[in-house]
Amino acid sequence: MNYTDAERRGIMAQLPARLATAAMTSRMKTSLAERPGQSS
Question: Taking a C-beta distance cutoff of 8 angstroms, is the pair 3, 11 a contact?
């Protein structure tokens, strides 16, 4: 895959937001799973 500089810059700009969203959702899932009285 060959990206232009602009495409690569756009991807790099989106990466932190994607990582933050993924971390937030996984943290929410684990906190929901750890809550007592909840059946998953």
Answer: yes
